[in-house]
Protein 1
Amino acid sequence: MRAQVLTAAGHPLAATELPAPHPGPQQLLIGVRACAVCRTDLHVVDGELPDPKLPLIPGHEIIGIVIEKGKSVDRFNLGDRVGVPWLGWTCGVCEYCTSGRENLCDRARFTGYQIDGGYAELTVADQRYCFAIERYGDVEAAPLMCAGLIGYRTLRMAGDARLIGIYGFGAAAHIVAQVMRHQGRRLFAFTRPGDAGAQEFARSLGAEWAGGSDEPPPELLDAALIFAPVGGLVPAALAATKKGGTVVSGGIHMSDIPSFPYRILWEERVLRSVANLTRRDAEEFLALAAEAGIRTETVTYPLADANRALADLRNGALQGAAVLIP
Ligand SMILES: [Zn+2]
Ligand SMILES: [Zn+2]
């Protein structure tokens, strides 16, 4: 099979011909139809996350067809269309797994990080962490698997906030904006200063106001969601948030947060992060996405152009989500 392989952090992916993987007892062999490119892939390729499997096939927003199954597989049949997310395996016995927080499992393994992912023609995945994909096309479903799932978990951590500011208007934000509109919430969008294209994109998805992250919003926020990996946005978001409001960081990696005066955190503002996803998040979100008629904006690239897709994401040169097609 053809695959794009990371051999060392900081190096471009290499087009490689590999033998087809064999599914273990609980695994599906999946013919990849589409794999979206997540900012986490950039962090892995750039060496900003510790200890990836090497060599590694990145990619954790996979949509494909089951073409072979392991002997214990009972949730899917040959020909089924499935989605494979970031959460690839959990231990089931640690204090997190047994308290509804498998996203924090001490021994969790992640697709496209410790497990080979979807930048390939074929992949194997544990059936217990895969989801049936109905209703959506392959390409439009792919960004739901992480941008959608993690975006949804991030939004959930904002509780019942009415007016929410989103910092960084990329793949996750463009999905969250539609969920917010469905839920009747108000949205302000903060982009890189001067990024008129992203601001227009945000307005087209229901943002009442869109401006640069260096601008104060016209009204204080009930909550803020940060999707851009820029630590300086944390004090900016706290300063833009009302008393008792919550600032949620949805990314896996961020540049250092600069020091800030205690008074912008005081008055019971909450600052928290989101890590990974649970299978329950995925089930809730996929049902909600269908009910809310969530659409994804995608830019497709052939698998062979994975490095170009990563570069475009790094440079903010695309709107919505990049999706690789093998
Ligand atoms: Zn566990
Ligand atoms: Zn991701």
Note: The radius of gyration is 19 Å.
Protein 2
Amino acid sequence: MSTTRMLFLSFALTALLLGCKASPETATTSTSTTTTSSSSTTTSTTTTSTAPPAFPSIPPVVISGNIPTTVPIPPNPPPNATSEQFRPYFDWFSWESFIALNWPASGVGRGNPDQPNNPSVFTSMTNTTPVTWGTYKANWELFDQYDKRPTPWNDYNSPYAPALCPQAKQTDKQLLMVTKGDTELSDVNQAFSFPLVDQSSNYVYFEVRYNEQQYNWIRGADNTPATWLYLMKNLPPGTVVSLPPNPRNPADSIMIKAAWRSLGGTQNTSGLQDKLRQRYYTVNAWVYNSQTQQCTQQLMGLVGFHIAQKTSLFTEWVWSTFEQVDNVPPKVDNVPSSFNNGTDNPSTGTQGFANRPTYTAPGQLPPTPTPTQVTRLNPMPTTPPGASTVDVNNTFHAALPKNSIWQYYQLVTTQWPTNPSQFKAPANRGVYPQDCGGAFPVNGAVNTALETYFQSSQLAVGAFGNSCMSCHYNAGTGLRDFSWGLARRPHQDAPPPSTSKMKATAQTAAK
Ligand code: HEC
């Protein structure tokens, strides 16, 4: 950890811990308009000659491969501070997590950054360097192993592997989902939703990954089968799951969801114009086509990136979402948008989209679909003045080298619980946003590539609303700790059904 960050974090941490020790409730505030703070401490914690930074302000950028675990909220914010004024501290946390997760992977084990304290490792990476989060466990490595144990964290073996892309090596990325609603092995629709089609008539693909803490918690202990939460029998209705940090494991759970578009061809072959391809973080992935039932290796460009991190203070998680800057208008550098034809025809009206594909069973998707027309319905926050999400993006871009691939990615929004101690599950008549930790912003927190069809609050009513927290709060009626994966994917303790697209591999883990 860099010295700057360490000082910074220890400062914030000291303040927060002091607040916590004084009384556990001091991590929260009582009114719904203010956010978590540690204003209770009256002892002076530091003696420094420099004046405290203005409030609100953007904390200094740190180029580090260490994922932050604390939101650097100043120790003595004004008593009447609004949630909006706390936004830059959460946006900073989002960007620092984004940098650490996209830090070059060490290549040893899984989830390990290469030289996390050496900024030049990050600033000199290219748009094909393998990244840390890419070595996290994919959802199917955890939830689709049926009567076998999912393998230990560092292992790339799977007792069952997707039968869809037999050519794929264990460490190759396989992209199989085009939706968030169906099984990850035949998905082309978004969460409870429809597929997204780019301007080249290619479907966008999604993947979900879990960090070590979350993976291990759901995998459970080898010798305690009742802790194996990937099995339905261990999650009867009414059981409450609390992912780490929890009383038995203080480390943060992190879950990732990413969206990719095809850039045409593979590395170094034709496809999207070379100049445009240089604007994406890319990976050569095995992509499953449900019409031809074939996998082809394609160069895929990252277009959307969700991070949810559960921290010890923010137990309803901190929700961050990033996009590639060319997704939708306004154009940057006059480059065409991935999901918009550059005209108002078709008009996206009050929904933020037009030409939504029809919902079809996997395998029956039209091979050359009409491109979806998308606009951003919920603007990126422009408040608080001078320290808004837009300003935080500018600050991080300015701190990165001009040729960094991450210049082409922007934070769209961060959503967080302002009053984390106030949680009551929907199953127990909890009501959003107040019983969901006082979510802020209350709505309109979505990604144009991942929640294209849930941008408008009216259209998202049936799907629990147009924000990360309103929707994830309902995972397992609030009993699955905001993880839709944990709510939807646990299975029977039996061999895969004959319809499963998972097949036994040579290496089988002991049950
Ligand atoms: C309308 C509902 C909805 C909204 C809004 C939504 N999500 Fe999700 N999200 C889902 C569903 C459904 C899944 C799929 C889980 C699965 O089936 O594996 C999912 C998956 C995820 C995952 C993968 C891990 C897991 O177990 O849930 C992450 C991370 C995530 N979403 C983050 C976000 C963020 C960040 C936002 C806001 C910017 C957001 N989501 C908005 C419904 C939603």
Note: Residues 315 and 450 are 24 Å apart (CA to CA).
